[in-house]
Amino acid sequence: MGRAFRCGVENNRKLNVRATAKRWPVRDFAPLIARTQEHGKAMGPATPIEALIRIEGDSWMFERADPSALAAARHRIVVHENGAPLSLGGCTDMITALDVARKMAEVDGRVVLIQNL
């Protein structure tokens, strides 16, 4: 058995299988689309909710922001999306803001603006 793994499989004995893309008919999604649109109309327009995000290791914790936590934010992190500024959030100190900006520059290649509040 070990020789089979070392030598591999002969080219004339390999299987060539092509994956075909599944195309779903639109009629299958019509009830789902209608139900989603109905629920969206019933909920009304979306409103932004102030949230607090804590990053611990690889996990992100989303919480409803306490007004005192929002008042403690001293630096705003801003990026440009489609030519318009988009505020991502705030930090309590400059060291944290610089760490976030540096990580976004490394990972996403984005330019990040840090504004004092």
Structural features, described:
There is one protein chain. This protein has 117 residues and is of the alpha+beta class. The chain has a domain at 66-116. Helix content is 38%, strand content 26%. It is built from 4 helices and 5 strands, in the order H-H-E-E-H-E-E-H-E. The protein has a 3-stranded antiparallel beta sheet with strand order 4-3-5. It has a two-stranded antiparallel ribbon with strand order 1-2. Strand 3 and strand 4 form a beta hairpin. It is flat and about 70 Å long. The model has no long low-confidence stretch (mean pLDDT 79).
Tags for this entry?
117 residues; alpha+beta; 3-stranded antiparallel β-sheet; flat
Short description:
This protein has helices at residues 2-7, 26-43, 67-72, 94-107, and strands at residues 51-56, 59-64, 75-81, 84-91, 113-116. It is an alpha+beta fold and 117 residues long.
- Strand tally: 5
User: Which structural category do the helix and sheet elements fall into?
Assistant: alpha+beta
The residue fraction in helices comes out at: 25-40%
Number of helices: 4
Unreliable residue stretches: none
Q: Describe the global form.
A: flat
Estimate the mean pLDDT confidence.
79
How would you write the strand order of the largest sheet? 4-3-5
Kindly estimate the percentage of residues that lie in beta strands according to DSSP.
25-35%
For the CA atoms, what is the radius of gyration? Answer: 25 Å
Helix-strand string: HHEEHEEHE
Through-space gap between termini:
68 Å
